[in-house]
């Protein structure tokens, strides 16, 4: 079945372009559009798409608040949100990820990465633009140390390997290829990490890895 997507962007030309790109892809169906944050929340709640693609800066509600309402800790039925923006600013990245976004892309990422992010989010994975990931790690490396919070049940050596790769934005398929294990094995490890860390999604796993210095900027 096709991945159902709602596109939210306040710039008509940009929104039309995103709709055209996604609508031309096999396996993706654009089912709705929104031109501001309030409309994005209303349309997404009404249509329940598989993925909401939302711009970070919009009138009414910005993309971070839209993400928090639809995918954050207080969301009754969280949905997959991918944030896309022209503004390559750390506070936007961190705000979107902490709000529950499953992906963060810059608008110059290109159609291929955009499509990958949509499919990854629909499959429960998370994709962050590689250049954003590298800078995000550097930001954490330069900030004040965070006292590691260990889960009650210890993380295994294999789970540590999966954790590090998730934190670098790898998908399940990429992790399976890198560790020479089956896709189902990776999914099992990711599910175990979510349980042990109390994480609701892969991005929360990645943020925990960053916060506890499991991943270093030069890795």
SSE layout and pairing:
Blueprint: E1 3-8, H1 12-23, E2 28-34, H2 37-47, E3 51-55, H3 63-71, E4 80-85, H4 90-99, E5 103-106, H5 111-122, E6 127-128, H6 130-142, H7 157-167, H8 172-179, H9 183-197, H10 202-211
Parallel strand pairs: 1-2, 1-3, 3-4, 4-5, 5-6
Helix pairs in contact: 2-3, 3-4, 7-9, 7-10, 8-9, 9-10
Domain HTH luxR-type: 148-213
GO molecular function, one term: DNA binding
Pfam families: GerE, Response_reg
Pick out its properties:
51% helix; single chain; 219 residues; globular; 10 helices; Arc Repressor Mutant, subunit A; 6-stranded parallel sheet; alpha/beta; Rossmann fold; 2 domains
**Uncertain segments:** none
Provide the gyration radius in Å.
Answer: 17 Å
Quick one: CATH class of the largest domain?
A: Alpha Beta
Total domains: 2
Architecture overview:
By secondary structure, this protein is of the alpha/beta class. It has 2 domains: 3-128, Rossmann fold, CATH 3.40.50; 140-211, Winged helix-like DNA-binding domain superfamily/Winged helix DNA-binding domain (Arc Repressor Mutant, subunit A). It contains 10 helices and 6 strands; from the N terminus they run E-H-E-H-E-H-E-H-E-H-E-H-H-H-H-H. The protein has helices at residues 12-23, 37-47, 63-71, 90-99, 111-122, 130-142, 157-167, 172-179, 183-197, 202-211; strands at 3-8, 28-34, 51-55, 80-85, 103-106, 127-128. A 6-stranded parallel sheet has the order 2-1-3-4-5-6, sandwiched between helices. Helix 2 (37-47) runs parallel beside helix 3 (63-71), helix 3 packs parallel to helix 4 (90-99) and helix 7 (157-167) crosses helix 10 (202-211). The longest helix has 15 residues, at 183-197. The protein starts with a strand and ends in an 8-residue tail after the last helix. The mean pLDDT is 85. One of its GO terms (molecular function) is DNA binding. This is DNA-binding response regulator. Residues 4-122 form the Response regulatory domain.
């Amino acid at each position: 079945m096709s991945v159902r997507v709602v596109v939210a962007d306040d710039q008509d030309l940009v929104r039309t372009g995103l709709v055209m790109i996604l609508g031309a892809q096999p396996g993706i169906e654009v089912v709705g559009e929104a031109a501001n944050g309030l409309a994005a929340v209303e349309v997404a709640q009404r249509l329940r798409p598989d993925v909401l693609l939302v711009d970070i800066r919009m009138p009414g509600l910005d993309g971070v608040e839209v993400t928090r309402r639809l995918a954050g800790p207080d969301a009754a039925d969280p949905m997959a949100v991918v944030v896309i923006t022209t503004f390559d600013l750390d506070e936007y990245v961190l705000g979107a990820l902490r709000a529950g976004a499953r992906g963060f892309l810059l608008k110059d990422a290109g159609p291929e990465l955009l499509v990958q992010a949509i499919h990854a989010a629909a499959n429960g994975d998370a994709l962050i633009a590689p250049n954003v990931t590298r800078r995000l790690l550097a930001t954490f490396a330069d900030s004040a140390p965070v006292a590691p919070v260990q889960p009650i049940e210890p993380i295994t050596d294999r789970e540590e390997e999966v954790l590090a790769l998730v934190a670098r934005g790898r998908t399940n398929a990429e992790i399976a290829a890198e560790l020479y294990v089956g896709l189902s094995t990776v999914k099992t490890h990711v599910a175990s990490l979510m349980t042990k860390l109390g994480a609701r999604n892969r991005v929360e796993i990645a943020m925990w890895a960053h916060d506890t210095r499991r991943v270093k900027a030069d890795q």
